[in-house]
Amino acid sequence: MKENIFPAIRLTIVCVLFFSGVYTLIVLGTAQLLPGKGNAEMITSNSKRYYANIGQIFTHDEYFWSRPSAVAYNAAGAGGSNKGPSNPDYLKEVQARIDSFLIHNPGVSKADIPADMVTASGSGLDPHISVQAAEIQVKRIAAIRGIAEGNIRQLIISNTEKPLLGFLGTQRVNVLKLNLALDNLK
Question: I need a labelling partner for 41 at 20 to 30 A (CA). Which of 13, 35, 87, 186 fits?
Answer without folding.
Answer: 186
